[in-house]
Amino acid sequence: MKSIAIITARGGSKRIPRKNIKEFCGKPILAYSIEAAIRSGVFDTVMVSTDDREIADIAEKYGAQVPFFRSEATSNDYAVTSQVIEEVLEEYRKRGKVFDEVCCIYPTAPFITGERLREAMKLLEDRDADSVLPVVRFSFPPQRGVIVEDGYLKFKWPEYRTARSQDLEPFYHDVGQFYCLNAKSFSNQRVLVMKKTVPLILSEMEIQDIDTEEDWKMAEVKFRLLHEK
């Protein structure tokens, strides 16, 4: 079984300029994803998919391969992750390399560890899954959420307004860190959340969306807390 870690790090970033290589707790944030993939010991190839020379240089400095650059089609604001993965796998095919398993890792996910990647890849094989998705439970039950209608609050689902939290079905959401994929299943279904997607449930302390400067600061605080323990 051949496996590849694909770290997606294009140059464009609107909300946080140069986000993928911005310094995070002492080094470019991209470095954390690369180092976790290498430390996991489960990938035959760890590569970065980018359209940016500076990002490529940093990726190679921290041990990743950058054998080719992204096309214009997968470098714009509208390209989706599945298209990037398809392009990378096709480029490797042209070079005579075919992979059985793929792990797509985001470049702004410093909470990823080699241990979690190993656990996810083992789940992919042990459960004969199409994909493995890290998720976290919503801290507040969505069933008791409210919406604004005509300027007033109302329950979206009034039938749950008096329900106890512990009696409601748990809801989870994608944490935006990585996706482990069976390459054949991905080739057939062409989506990340496939028919047989197994969850890897994480804690709130292992995750943080980083879309704004405030998110960035919060992530650094959380990261330092974790690494002080």
What are its keywords?
21% strand, alpha/beta, 6 helices, 7-stranded mixed β-sheet, two-stranded antiparallel ribbon, 229 residues, globular, single chain
Brief sketch in words of this structure:
It is built from six helices and eleven strands. By secondary structure, the protein is of the alpha/beta class.
Structure characterization notes:
This protein is an alpha/beta fold and 229 residues long. Helix content is 31%, strand content 21%. The protein contains six helices and eleven strands. The strands form three sheets. Strands 1, 4, 5, 6, 9, 10 and 11 form a seven-stranded mixed sheet that branches. A two-stranded antiparallel ribbon has the order 2-3. The chain is globular, with a radius of gyration of 19 Å. The mean pLDDT is 96.
Bin the helical content: 25-40%
Measured by DSSP, the beta-strand proportion falls in 15-25%
The beta-strand count equals: 11
Order of helices and strands: EEEHEHHEHEEEEEHEH
Determine Rg (CA atoms, Å): 19 Å
Using the alpha-carbon principal axes, give the shape: globular
What is the overall number of helices?
6
Oligomer: single chain
Major sheet characteristics: 7 strands, mixed
Q: Report the mean per-residue pLDDT as an integer.
A: 96
End-to-end distance, in Å?
36 Å
Unreliable segments (pLDDT under 50, ≥5 consecutive)?
none
Structural class: alpha/beta
Secondary-structure blueprint:
Elements: E1 3-8, E2 23-24, E3 27-28, H1 29-40, E4 45-49, H2 53-61, H3 81-94, E5 101-105, H4 114-126, E6 131-137, E7 146-149, E8 152-155, E9 172-174, E10 178-182, H5 183-189, E11 197-201, H6 213-228
Parallel strand pairs: 1-4, 1-5, 6-11
Antiparallel strand pairs: 2-3, 5-10, 6-9, 6-10, 7-8
Helix pairs in contact: 1-4
